[in-house]
Structures are given as C-alpha cells and as structure tokens.
Amino acid sequence: MLGRVMESEAVESLALSGGFLALVAAIELVMAAVVLGAGAGGGMHVLLLVCWVALTLVAAWRYFHDDQRWTQARLDMTHDLVERMVGHRTRLAQQSSEHWHDGEDQALEGYYGLSAQMDRSAAWLMAFVPRGWMLVGLAGLAPAFISGRATPAGLAVALGGILLAFRALTGLATGLWNLVGAAIAWQQVAPLFHAAARREMTGSPSGAIREEAPANGSDAPAVVEAHDLVFRYRERGEPVLRSCSLRISPGDRILLEGPSGGGKSTLASLLTGLRSPESGLLLAGGLDRQTLGSQGWRRRVAAAPQFHENHVLTATFAFNAVMGRERALQPGDLAEVETISGELGLTGLLQRMPAGTLQMVGETGWQLSHGERSRLYIARALLQDPDLIILDESFAALDPENLRLALECVLHRARALLVIAHV
User: Fold this and answer.
1) CB 402 within 8 Å of CB 378
2) CB of 27 within 8 A of CB of 127?
3) Are 416 and 250 in contact (CB under 8 A)?
4) pLDDT value at position 273?
5) Regarding the domain delimited by 2-88+105-195, which CATH topology (the fold level of the hierarchy) does it fall under?
6) Contact, 389 vs 410, CB < 8 A?
7) Does 225-422 match 2-88+105-195 at the fold level?
C-alpha cells in the first residue's frame, strides 16, 4: 500500500512531463515532414520519416511490456522479502534451515534477466531511434545527391529537415519513456483512485421491505436477518456460502462453531458489511445496506475480527478502544473505557501503565500480550454500542479466569451476540 501511494507521485510527474514532451515532439515532426517534403529527398524522405515514427512506437510498446514484467518481478520480490521478514520467527521455529532461502536464487536470476531485457529495450528506444534516423535520413538523401539532380539549396533544406526530425524523435522517445513509466505506475495506484471515487449505493427508505412480525408473537424486529445468502471468492469456483439464512433477534446469544475454512469468518464479514453477498437478502432492523449506508450499518453491527485482520494502532489505549465511534474522544469516554476494561480483567494492565488509558500502545509503545489485545478488541466492539456484536475467535487466547470475566462482560452488555469458534 505504501508503494502504491508513492507511485501516485510518479503518475503525476511522469504523465505531465511525458505528455508535454510528446506533444512538442509531434508538432516538430509535422514541421520536419513539411521541410523534408520541400527538400531534395521529397516524398521519399517524408515516407521514411513516417515509417521511422511507426518504428519508434513499436519500440515504445516493446519497452512498455518489458518494463511491466520487470516491475511485477520487482514487486513480487519485495512482497516476498517483507513476508519473510514478518514471518521470520515462524520460519525459525517451524522450517528447516536448509529451506529458508528456497527459490531466492531463481528469483534473482529471473529478475536479472528481465532487467537486462528492459535495458536493451530502453537503449533501442532512447539511443537507437534518434541516432538511427540520422543514418536513414542521410541514406534517403543519397540517391538525389549521387544522381546530381539535387541543388545545393535542396540539399541544405533536406539536411535541416533531417536535423529537425532528429531533435523531434529525441523528444518523442523521452516523452514515450516517461509515459510508459506513468502508465505502469498507474497500474499500481489505480485501485486506490477507483476505491476513492467509488460512490456508495444509496436507496430510499420507502423502498425497504416491511418486516413481518415473528411467529413467537414478539413485536421486536430482527437485529439482523439473512435469506439465501450466496458468496464466493473470485479465485474459487464453488461458493463459500450457499443458501445461508439466519435471524438474530434482540437478546439472542448465538455460538457458531465449525471447522477451519467452513465459512464462519466469511459470514461475519457479510454481516458486518465488509463484503457484499453475490445473491440473497441481508437486512439490519428491516433495512438493507444500501438504504442504511455504510455508517448506518456500522452503528447496528460491530465485530472483533480475528487477529490477522485486527490491529493495535500506535496511539493511546483509549484511542484504540473507542476508535470505532464516529465522534471524537471526550472526557466522559475515559471513564467508560476504564469501566469496560475492568470488567474484561484489564485493570491490572491499566495500573501497570504509567499513563493508564492515555498510555501509548502499539509497535512503538507499550507492548500488549496476545490476550490483552484480544480483550482490547472486545472492548472496542462493546464501546460502539451496536445492536449486534460479532466476536470471531476472540476468546481463544484467554486463560480460564479472564475467559470467565470476558464472557460475563459481553453477555451483560451486548444487546445481541454472535460468537464464532472452532470445533
């Protein structure tokens, strides 16, 4: 993500400079064609220039493909290096040392080959195209010079046209080189621009489906209701969820168990609005997500995702606890954070930290244990005060005593609760 953000600056600078250079070069090429047509070479010289411009575009297209492959190889190596650094301790404990560097030599060799190929393409575009034209232009002037049909004035005009075309082709090659860099940078940064420009679908509350009263006679609408949800990941052919239906009412306490890969976390992501179902109907309080909007849906459903999808940001403990709220941190929130943290068994942690709830935590702050982070994630969900709280493997890292405290807290505070656990 950081690399994509950095590429956005390259898109702007390279596109502007490359576009300007290419535009100026195109104007100069037209002028050069007019001068060459008036010179000793005549129409033959103009035809040679047109063919050479076409050759320049072919060289730029070849350089684009080579640069694209080189960039992808560079990014793959970077991602692999970051992954190896993040998982270094896991590799030390669970992988034999003779396999730590498997594939690295092959990746470097492939990267070297792509680099050499890209350099050759760049040399053809930047060096051969303008200098090669000088040879071609002079060769096109040779028949008129040898036959003696050319006048000194005609030869001088033709040489001037050749030099003007040489300058234009030099600018065109540089401009195309910059535009190729901008195009490849855009391929990396485009997802960010598309995500930022994507408009959220909105609907009219009058179009919402009216919910029928439940069969048990209760007039309370369902907190969340799903009918025949289907969801599949793009890289997979079979749906992860098929014909999934459920109803969660106020006061419900639901335990969802299943094996790893069974679709439990996928269902949680659908209920929280992080993903959209391929088909089916999903309502919160009788309204769909398009009607409520993303903010309205978040006020109704909150979750504490699994560890690999949840984070402690480098900020105060209180900020991390209330970051799910839409309003800024207020003085009264600190007391609520302390109360819920105490119910979750974090009083000892707050007492150990010199600044209490205002202590900086995260990678460069106070280091929290696995269980402490789990309870912080639970507190973050509770402090949003939603209609439904979803806890995905939130109790897995807790010892029996803290597990009891955390369960009592969420059972007491949650209006409706869905707990996901492995079997």
Assistant:
1) no
2) no
3) yes
4) 85
5) ABC transporter transmembrane region fold (1.20.1560)
6) yes
7) no
Strand 279-284 with 315-316, pairing: unpaired
Return d(Cα 16, Cα 422) in angstroms, integer: 54
Secondary structure class of 55 (helix, strand, coil): helix
386 to each of 220, 225, 324, how far by Cα in Å? 16, 15, 10
Q: What is the residue extent of each domain of the chain?
A: 2-88+105-195, 225-422
From the list 122, 147, 169, 123, the residue with the least C-alpha distance to 25 is 169
d(CA 301, CA 308): 20
Q: Helix, strand, coil: what percent of the chain each, to 5?
A: 60, 10, 25
At residue 305, the pLDDT reads: 79
Rounded CA-CA distance 188/13 in Å is: 15
Residues 173, 69 contacting (CB under 8 angstroms) = no
Residues in the chain where the model's pLDDT stays below 50: 202-218
Whole-angstrom distance, CA of residue 43 vs CA of residue 148: 18
Tokens read off for 22:
């290419």
The C-alpha angle 254, 259, 262, rounded to 5 degrees, equals 85
- pLDDT of 92 reads 72
Model's pTM, two decimal places?
0.59
Region at 64 (left for phi over 0; alpha for psi -120 to 50; beta for the rest): alpha
Q: Is beta strand 301-304 parallel, antiparallel or unpaired with respect to 279-284?
A: unpaired
Measured CA to CA, the distance from residue 304 to residue 391 in angstroms comes to 5
- Listed in sequence order, the DSSP H helices in 279-366 are 289-300, 317-322, 331-343, 347-352
Token pair listed for 422 = 């492995």
What is the rounded CA–CA span in Å between residue 22 and residue 28?
Answer: 10
| Rg of the chain taking only CA atoms, in angstroms | 33
Q: Which CATH class is domain 225-422?
A: alpha beta
Residue with tokens 């976390």: 265
pLDDT of residue 235: 60
Give me 32's structure tokens: 């050069």
d(CA 359, CA 353): 6
Q: For residue 331, what pLDDT is reported?
A: 75
The residue assigned the tokens 């953000």 is: 5
